[in-house]
Design brief:
Jelly Rolls, 4 domains
Length: 583
């Protein structure tokens, strides 16, 4: 900063005297503003005072009447200055279309030269020069002749014009440089319970706190959102129940300055005694790391800040909270392409478990996901569904489920499967924030010992009652099996289906009655890997004593011997296999 005299210069310059009293004023100047997106400094006023501002920026000569894109700023400026009250974090002045004049020699240059009056206090001066991906012309519409001008503009246009951009503030009592302003900002946040600000791209942060007694907290959060959706935002969880006690919603957020997508909430809520986790996540663009549109008025507080609102509160009721690194009951993580993994656990009394799962999903569907089934009945008691997930950081298709569910006494199987791309082995887009946990993990709640891992019974060859696999086109195969007493069986069946209909599928009939006791139905299947029409059932049913016929039928295409689309993950199991589970 020493070689940037053009960046911040202070002058203990002009003197005014009235009688024997003498007061001193200072001058603050920012220049060389086109090479970094945000330049800033600070100043203080000991009393309410009129100061003079001279500034040169750039932008259009009219407001944006109709917002066409959330990147837009209705002020229609792309090089401009503003002043922030350091205490309230409110913008108290900025360059606009109305208070600036067009330079007669430049189409886009805007000038401000006037006095403003500010109250006693500390202030932060900002200058933003973010090169836009588009220009807002004529109320937001881009005319053809302007497109031509933009296309054939000299590549050095930005550098050449930015040489004139500046701001000079005269008549202040004290001047602060960048380091001073950052120091003041840090000091102002020392009393915060949680400080997750200054967040950069692809950020996923969390921090916990405990309250020994109920208390009111203030949430100050700045993020990115539009049209009912949030892209950079935060939320607060009850650490025990995993329920959200607060989340940033676009509909409730106000305008944070700059691009219309910059959102802000300042809100107070009451929390009961307990443990809490504060989260903040960002997507892959537009953050304090680099702005792709005009930044908010408080750019370095991009993130979430939590404070106690009562100045007379007892600080002893607050303490730090960190999640215990409990050993998972079941952990199926670092899952690669075309994988299927499973493990079992047992619950000896009704309880709650915490599920943490990361997978791949888009447009309402999950491609890599986990589920839990009852080991005795085959019933799915929980499944990772897109609508229940949140962004897991990185590419938008990285999805995360984290919550607590109640589960009854019994034995359960945890399953996880992936398709043929984007997994721990090989990401085809940006990895999630927590790549090592790609898969599913099950944790006890409150160190509950009623939940424990149990090894899954190893299926031996003599446990196989029927194996009709590697089925080709136009085949119909069957095998009779005899059950001498009521027995649980496991059915693994892979076939072809689409739009609620199965084309290659299996079923089981009671030979004596001729009735089907089980049929592979599309709505009970999961994706088997490869082409989406590859479907799989892995279920458990109970059969009474008797003789049964295990059947499988295929149509004229897409089978083990000749796939017309991608084969399933376990192609040699194309068909039906029946296992005996009871000894």
């Amino acid at each position: 900063m020493t070689n940037r005299i053009n960046k911040i210069s202070t002058a203990l310059l002009f003197f005014c005297s009235v009688g024997l009293a003498q007061s001193q004023a200072q001058e603050l100047e920012l220049r060389d503003l086109g090479r970094q997106q945000i330049s800033f400094a600070g100043f203080s006023l000991k009393t309410q005072k009129t100061i003079h501002i001279e500034a040169v920026g750039a932008g259009a000569d009219r407001w944006v009447k109709k917002i066409q894109n959330y990147q837009q700023d209705e002020h229609n400026q792309y090089a401009y200055a503003w002043i922030l009250d350091s205490k309230t974090r409110e913008m108290v002045w900025r360059m606009t279309v109305d208070n600036t004049e067009e330079d007669r020699w430049s189409e886009w240059k805007r000038k401000f030269n006037a006095d403003i009056t500010l109250n006693e206090g500390d202030y932060e001066l900002y200058y933003s020069a973010v090169e836009p991906d588009y220009f807002n012309f004529e109320g937001g519409f881009l005319s053809f002749d302007k497109i031509i001008k933009k296309i054939f503009r000299d590549e050095d246009w930005w550098e050449e014009n930015s040489e004139d951009w500046m701001i000079k503030v005269s008549g202040v009592d004290e001047v602060y440089n960048e380091d001073d302003v950052r120091k003041f900002q840090r000091m102002a946040k020392e009393s915060a319970i949680v400080d997750l600000t200054g967040c950069k791209d692809n950020c996923y942060e969390k921090r916990g706190f405990s309250l020994a007694k109920p208390a009111a907290i203030e949430i100050f959060i700045i993020g990115e959102g539009d049209n009912g959706k949030m892209f950079d935002y935060g939320w607060i969880l009850d650490a025990k129940s995993r329920k959200k006690v607060w989340t940033m919603e676009e509909e409730k957020a106000g305008y944070a300055g700059g691009a219309v997508k910059n959102k802000i909430i300042k809100e107070s809520i009451k929390l009961d005694a307990g443990d809490f986790l504060v989260y903040y996540k960002t997507d892959d663009s537009h953050s304090s790391e680099k702005w792709n549109a005009n930044p908010p008025y408080d750019p370095f507080n991009w993130g979430i800040l939590v404070r106690i609102t009562d100045k007379d509160f007892d600080p002893s009721i607050i303490s730090k909270y960190s999640e215990k690194d409990d050993e998972a009951i079941v952990s199926l993580v670092k899952i690669g392409d075309y994988a299927y993994k499973e493990k079992s656990f047992e619950v000896t009394k009704p309880t709650s478990i915490r599920i943490y799962a990361i997978g791949e999903g888009r447009s309402g569907d999950m491609f890599d996901y986990g589920w839990i089934s009852n080991a005795n009945t085959g019933e799915i008691v929980w499944k990772m569904r897109y609508k229940d997930t949140q962004h897991a950081g990185g590419a938008s298709k990285n999805r995360m489920f984290q919550d607590i569910i109640k589960i009854g006494t019994g034995q359960y199987i945890v399953h996880y499967q992936t398709d043929d791309s984007h997994s721990y082995e090989d990401w085809n887009q940006r990895a999630p924030q927590d790549p090592e946990m790609y898969g599913i993990s099950i944790y006890p709640v409150d160190n509950d010992e009623s939940v424990k891992f149990i090894p899954r019974k190893i299926l031996k060859s003599n446990d196989i009652l029927a194996e009709l696999t590697k089925i080709g086109d136009d085949e119909q195969v069957r095998k009779q099996i005899h059950i001498d007493r009521k027995t649980r069986i496991r059915i693994v069946c892979i076939g072809e289906g689409d739009w609620d209909e199965m084309y290659d599928f299996g079923w089981i009939e009671n030979v004596q009655t001729g009735k089907r006791v089980w049929t592979m139905r599309y709505d009970h299947t999961d994706h088997a890997g490869g082409a989406r029409k590859n479907r799989k059932v892995d279920t458990i049913i109970t059969l009474d004593a008797g003789t049964y016929s295990v059947n499988y039928r295929s149509d004229d295409s897409h089978s083990y011997y000749e796939w017309n689309e991608r084969a399933p993950r376990d192609e040699e199991k194309w068909g039906i296999t029946v296992y005996r589970l009871d000894d």
